[in-house]
Amino acid sequence: MTQPADMVPDTEYRGLVRILPVFARPYALLARFDRPIGWWLLFWPCAWAVALSGRAVERWDLIAWFLLGSIAMRSAGCVYNDIVDRDLDRQVARTAARPLASGAVSVRAAWIWLGALCLVGLVVLLQLGGTAAGVAVASVVLVAAYPFMKRITWWPQAWLGLVFSWGAPVAWAQLGLDYGWAPGLLLYAGSIAWVIGYDTIYALQDVEDDALVGVRSSARALGARVRPGVAGFYAAAVALWAAAFWMLRADVLALAALLPVAWHLGWQVATLRPGEATNALARFRSNRFAGLLMFAACFVVGTTL
Asked: Is 137 or 213 the better-scoring residue by pLDDT?
């Protein structure tokens, strides 16, 4: 395994994890409670769709349910991913300390923990109407297949985009169908492009180890063209979001609401240094703020429909 001097370990005893009882810490790490960026990124597309429907204030409770569901299901996804990838994780410096890869948690215990997290997700699912619940359940196939994508395609980030953006059509099916499916699907498509962009940045941390163990990624596929590649996906995201806004409100001022998030994504590309792991991780994590800016844009457009 190679380990760059500036590499940030995937598993860190910090924040909430540090104050938990010792026996509980490996399970918290397995669910990535030490890395809340993941559930923020899963949550934002849900919140965008609620805001774009114009009912963010009225349905603040639904936004809260989506937040809880994002925490639970992102955690469940991480546990499942680590069960599948435990042998690969042992071969990569950044992931070798993960609880399953290191032996801190048994596979049987991980499956039980996964079941408990899924029960929380079920409680959230029961808050949805029939159409939205059906859309949500349809994501199970995508989630189950995701850990295997890095073995069969150079673009597992595209599959992650399908999974991590799924909350947008779920929330749109719950609140936005008075405007038809098209705006929600454009919002979803833009989110997919956004996810491909930011997860390509994330994958830059593992390019050398991935090459050694045979794991594929968009970062490896793009190679020296990674910055223009990420720029292209971010540009596609903004264009698709603009199309969604235009369908709801054909007004240049509505498109202007996207300028802050477009500027932020441009900043990420302009300051990205592909050979520096800490730089890539910081740019990846900054997408928490990009999601907030996009939520603000959706809120502005949604409340003026």
From this structure: 137
The overall average pLDDT reported for the chain is 92
pLDDT on residue 1: 44
> Measuring CA to CA, how many Å separate 65 from each of 36, 62, 69, 109, 273?
17, 5, 6, 27, 37
Token pair listed for 71: 């925490």
The answer on pLDDT for 90 being more than 80 is yes
Q: Which has the closest alpha carbon to 96: 213, 200, 201, 199?
A: 213
Residue 84, CB half-sphere, CA atoms under 13 Å: how many?
Answer: 16
Q: How many CA atoms lie within 13 A of 284 on its CB side?
A: 22
Spacing of C-alpha 131 from chain mean position: 23
Superfamily of domain 16-302: UbiA prenyltransferase (1.10.357.140)
Write down the pLDDT at residue 79: 94
Alpha carbon distance 12, 35 (integer Å):
9
Rounded Cα distance, 235 and 243, in Å: 12
> Does residue 59 carry a pLDDT above 70?
yes
pLDDT at res. 10: 54
Contacts for 74-78: CB closer than 8 Å, 24+ residues apart:
74/32, 74/38, 74/39, 74/42, 75/31, 75/32, 75/33, 75/39, 75/117, 76/31, 76/114, 76/117, 76/118, 76/121, 77/143, 77/146, 77/163, 78/30, 78/31, 78/32, 78/38
Whether the CB-CB separation of 131 and 93 falls below 8 Å is answered with no
